[in-house]
Amino acid sequence: MPGDKTSKSSYRLVVRLNQPHHQSSKMSFKPQEDPLTTHVLNTADGVPGARMALSLHRLDSKRVIWNLVTMGTTDEDGCCTGLIASEAFTPGMYKMRFETGQYWESLGHTSFYPYVEIVFTIKDPSQRFHLPLLLSRFSYSTYRGS
């Protein structure tokens, strides 16, 4: 920028931040309607975990059984939105199940984990929750994003 005294690397950063953000045509993220999202990253290959089947379940604490809420598949960016509407997202215990064995098989590999289940508790459903899964054939990790 004329008259700007920032370094070239700072200038590049500014340019990159001001470029339009690419969104997959399958993504329909609307924060007020999408309180829970996930993102799968294949850390072994350094790529998104695209086309991975997953399901969301809610615990019925009286009957002590898991009830299926919805099923989904990650998009080309490894993201899955639209899992549950704000009105249905109530306090309680939830489980997200990722079909990791099928995913690795589709890539021509075997995996130590046939699936990954992440169990979490929601106390304040007015917040937004993001549940990333970082995955290789022999390990995985997760954290609560926002």
Strand-residue fraction? 35-45%
Distance between the termini: 34 Å
Overall helicity: 10-25%
Rg, alpha carbons: 18 Å
Shape: globular
H/E topology pattern? HEEEEEEHEEE
| Spans of at least 5 consecutive residues with low confidence | 1-32
Total E-strand runs: 9
Write down the overall mean pLDDT: 83
Structure description:
With 146 residues, the chain is mainly beta. The chain has helices at residues 8-18, 100-106; strands spanning 36-42, 47-48, 53-60, 65-73, 79-80, 92-98, 116-122, 129-135, 140-142. Strands 1, 2, 5, 8 and 9 form a 5-stranded mixed sheet that branches. Strands 4-3-6-7 form a 4-stranded antiparallel sheet, covered by helices on one side. Strand 1 and strand 2 form a beta hairpin. It is globular, with a radius of gyration of 18 Å. The relative contact order is 0.20.
Topology, element by element:
Layout: H1 8-18, E1 36-42, E2 47-48, E3 53-60, E4 65-73, E5 79-80, E6 92-98, H2 100-106, E7 116-122, E8 129-135, E9 140-142
Parallel strand pairs: 1-8
Antiparallel strand pairs: 1-2, 1-5, 3-4, 3-6, 6-7, 8-9
